[in-house]
C-alpha cells in the first residue's frame, strides 16, 4: 500500500533540494547525465560499424520519455522524466526511428569522472599554493600556541563557508542551476551588484596571486642564477647577514639592517672580482631580475589558450612534497628549539600569544581559499553524494600540511643563536643561496609558477573581458593592455614592496571577505528567510561570521 502512495516523480536530493512547480523535487545535476534524447533521421550524419539495434523495451522507453516531455511546455521542468524510466548512464543510447542506436560514451558533460580519492587530491593540490611558504612566519606573528589554534579554527570556519557555497545552488527554487558557478548564485540573490562585486573580489584574488607569484619568481630566479654563477666560476661567497655555522646554515636576512644590500653578499674569494661585481650589478633581486621575467611571461600571457601549461599541474604536487621533505630533513639536522612564554618576550623567543595574530588569519584566509572554484571541482566527482565528505577530507589534509610545515619550521629554527623573529615571510629565504636542498626547491617552485602564471592570467582575462565585452579574447589589443597592467603590478611590487606576507594577507582578507564570509552567510540566511525556516540562532551565528570577516580585513591595515 505504501508503494501506491508514492508520487510518480520520485523526489531526489537532500534537505536543500530544488523545488519545482507543484512542490515536485528534482536534482538539476541529473539533467545532463540522465536525459535520453531522440535524433531524427535527417540529423544522423554518420554511423558506426558496430551500431546496435534498438530493442522493443528501449523503443517503448523512448515513447514514454516523449510522453512525459509533452505533458507540459518545453520550458517547464516540473515533469522531468523520473529515474525509474531512465537507463543507467552507461546504457544510454542515441535512438532513431530507423530502429538503430549507438551508445553515448560520455553522457555526463563533466559529471562523474573522478573517484573520491582523485577529487580529494585535486582539491588539496588546488588549495596548496604560495601561502605555505608564509605559514611559519604567520605562526611567529601570532605566537606558537596561538598559531596552531588559529590554523585549526580557520580551517573549520573556511570549510563551513565552503560547504555553504556548495549547497547554495540547490537552495534556489524553480530554476535549473546545474551549470551555475558561485558568481551566478550571487547574481541571482543580489542582482548586478552581486555579479560585479563577485567579479571584483575574484579579480582581487587572481591578481593578488599573480603579484605574489611575480615577487616569488623574482626571488627564486635571483637565487638560482646566483647559485649557478658562483658554482660555474668557483666563487665562494660569504653572506654578510647573521647566521649559524656548520653545513646546515640558517641565516637571518632581516637582522642585516633596514636597508641591506640587495644581493645579500659582499665578501668573496675569486680571481675575477670585476666580473663578480658586474654580475652583482646586472643580477639584482629587485632592480633587474623582475624585469627579465617580462620577456618570458608576457608573451605566454597573450596565448589564446593556456591548455599546454595545464599539463604541468603535477609540478605543484611535486613541489609541495619536496618542501615537506626539505622541512623534515632540516628539522632532523637542526633539532627542536622551543621555550614557552605566554605574554613575555625575550631575546630569542616570542610569546605564545601576540597581538599580531590577525596577520596569520589574513594569510590563512587565502591559504584555505577555494570557494570561487569549488563547485567546478566537485562537479567532476563520480559520487556526488560524497561531495561534503570529500571536501572535508581535503580540508583536513590541507590543514595538516600547513600545520606540519609551519610547526616544524618554527620549532626547529635555531634559537639561540638566532631569534625566532628572524623567520622570514618566505621561509626559504632563511637558507643561503648556496644551500643545495633550497636551490632544488627554488628550481621546482620557479618552473611550477612559470607554468601556473599563464593559467591565472587566462582566468583573469576570461572573467574580466567576458563580462566587459562578452568575449574572452575580444582583440589582441585588449588582451595586451590587460596583461601589461597585470605584469606591471607584479614588477612594481617586486621592485618596491617585495613583501609576500603582506600581499598574501591583504589579498586573502579582501577576497575572503566576499567569497568566504559575507556572500555564503548572506545567501544562506536569505534562502532560509524566503522559505520561512530562519531561526534566531542561525541568524546570530552567520552575522557573527560576517563580522569576523570584516574584522579580519580591517585588522590587516591596522597592524
UniProtKB/TrEMBL annotation:
Q: Where is the Amino acid transporter transmembrane domain?
A: 115-227, 286-554
Q: Which reaction does it catalyse?
A: L-asparagine(out) = L-asparagine(in); L-tyrosine(in) = L-tyrosine(out); L-glutamine(out) = L-glutamine(in); L-leucine(in) = L-leucine(out)
- Which domain of life does this protein belong to? Eukaryota
Q: Which GO terms describe its cellular component?
A: late endosome membrane; lysosomal membrane
- Name any one GO molecular function: L-amino acid transmembrane transporter activity
User: A Pfam family matched by this chain, by name?
Assistant: Aa_trans
Membrane topology per the entry is: Multi-pass membrane protein
InterPro entries tied to this protein: AA_transpt_TM
Keyword field: Amino-acid transport, Disulfide bond, Endosome, Glycoprotein, Lysosome, Membrane, Metal-binding, Sodium, Transmembrane, Transmembrane helix, Transport
Where does it reside? Late endosome membrane; Lysosome membrane
Q: Give TM segment ranges.
A: 117-137, 143-163, 196-216, 287-303, 315-336, 356-378, 390-411, 439-460, 472-497, 503-526, 538-558
Recorded hits in PANTHER family, A to Z, give: AMINO ACID TRANSPORTER (PTHR22950), NEUTRAL AMINO ACID TRANSPORTER 9 (PTHR22950:SF244)
Q: What family does the database annotate?
A: Belongs to the amino acid/polyamine transporter 2 family. SLC38A9 subfamily.
**Would you tell me the protein name for this molecule?**
Neutral amino acid transporter 9
Amino acid at each position: 500500500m505504501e508503494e501506491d502512495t508514492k508520487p510518480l516523480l520520485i523526489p531526489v536530493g537532500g534537505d536543500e533540494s530544488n523545488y519545482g512547480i507543484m512542490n515536485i523535487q528534482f536534482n538539476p545535476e541529473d539533467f545532463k547525465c540522465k536525459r535520453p534524447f531522440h535524433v531524427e533521421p535527417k540529423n544522423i550524419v554518420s554511423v558506426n560499424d558496430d551500431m546496435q539495434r534498438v530493442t522493443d523495451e528501449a523503443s517503448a522507453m523512448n515513447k514514454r520519455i516523449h510522453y512525459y516531455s509533452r505533458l507540459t511546455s518545453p520550458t517547464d521542468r516540473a515533469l522531468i522524466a523520473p529515474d525509474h524510466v531512465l537507463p543507467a548512464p552507461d546504457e544510454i543510447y542515441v535512438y532513431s526511428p530507423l530502429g538503430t542506436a549507438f551508445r553515448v560514451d560520455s553522457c555526463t558533460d563533466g559529471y562523474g569522472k573522478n573517484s573520491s580519492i582523485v577529487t580529494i587530491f585535486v582539491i588539496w593540490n588546488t588549495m596548496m599554493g604560495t601561502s605555505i611558504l608564509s605559514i611559519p612566519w604567520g605562526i611567529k606573528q601570532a605566537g606558537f600556541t596561538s598559531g596552531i589554534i588559529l590554523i585549526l579554527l580557520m580551517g573549520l570556519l573556511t570549510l563551513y563557508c565552503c560547504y555553504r557555497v556548495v549547497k547554495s545552488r540547490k537552495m534556489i527554487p524553480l530554476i535549473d542551476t546545474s551549470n551555475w558557478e558561485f558568481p551566478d548564485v550571487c547574481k541571482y540573490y543580489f542582482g548586478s551588484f552581486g555579479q560585479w562585486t563577485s567579479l571584483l573580489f575574484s579579480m582581487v584574488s587572481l591578481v593578488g596571486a599573480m603579484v605574489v607569484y611575480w615577487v616569488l619568481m623574482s626571488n627564486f630566479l635571483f637565487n638560482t642564477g646566483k647559485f649557478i654563477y658562483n658554482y660555474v666560476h668557483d666563487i665562494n661567497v660569504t653572506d654578510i647577514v647573521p647566521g649559524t655555522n656548520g653545513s646546515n646554515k640558517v641565516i637571518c636576512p632581516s637582522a642585516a639592517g633596514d636597508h641591506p644590500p640587495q644581493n645579500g653578499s659582499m665578501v668573496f674569494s675569486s680571481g675575477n672580482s670585476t666580473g663578480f661585481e658586474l654580475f652583482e650589478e646586472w643580477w639584482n633581486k629587485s632592480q633587474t631580475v623582475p624585469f627579465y621575467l617580462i620577456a618570458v611571461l608576457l608573451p605566454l600571457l597573450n596565448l589564446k589558450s593556456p591548455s599546454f601549461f595545464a599539463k604541468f599541474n603535477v609540478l605543484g604536487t611535486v613541489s609541495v612534497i619536496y618542501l615537506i621533505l626539505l622541512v623534515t630533513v632540516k628539522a632532523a639536522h637542526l633539532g627542536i628549539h622551543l621555550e614557552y612564554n605566554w605574554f613575555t618576550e625575550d631575546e630569542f623567543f616570542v610569546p605564545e600569544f601576540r597581538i599580531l595574530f590577525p596577520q596569520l588569519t589574513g594569510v590563512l584566509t587565502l591559504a584555505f581559499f577555494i570557494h570561487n572554484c569549488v563547485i567546478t571541482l566537485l562537479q567532476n566527482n563520480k559520487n556526488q553524494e560524497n561531495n561534503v565528505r570529500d571536501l572535508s577530507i581535503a580540508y583536513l589534509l590541507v590543514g595538516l600540511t600547513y600545520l606540519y610545515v609551519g610547526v616544524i619550521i618554527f620549532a626547529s629554527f635555531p634559537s639561540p643563536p638566532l631569534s625566532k623573529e628572524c623567520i622570514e615571510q618566505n621561509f626559504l629565504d632563511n637558507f643561503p643561496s648556496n644551500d643545495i636542498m633550497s636551490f632544488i626547491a627554488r628550481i621546482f617552485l620557479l618552473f611550477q609558477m612559470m607554468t601556473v602564471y599563464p593559467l591565472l592570467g587566462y582566468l583573469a582575462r576570461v572573467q574580466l573581458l567576458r563580462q566587459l565585452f562578452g568575449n574572452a579574447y575580444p582583440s589582441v589589443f585588449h588582451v595586451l593592455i590587460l596583461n601589461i597592467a597585470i605584469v606591471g603590478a607584479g614588477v612594481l611590487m617586486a621592485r618596491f614592496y617585495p613583501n609576500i606576507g603582506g600581499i598574501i594577507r591583504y589579498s586573502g582578507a579582501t577576497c575572503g571577505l566576499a567569497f568566504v564570509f559575507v556572500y555564503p552567510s548572506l545567501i544562506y540566511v536569505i534562502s532560509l528567510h524566503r522559505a520561512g525556516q530562519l531561526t534566531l540562532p542561525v541568524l546570530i551565528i552567520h552575522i557573527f561570521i560576517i563580522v569576523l570577516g570584516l574584522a579580519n580585513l580591517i585588522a590587516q591595515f591596522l597592524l
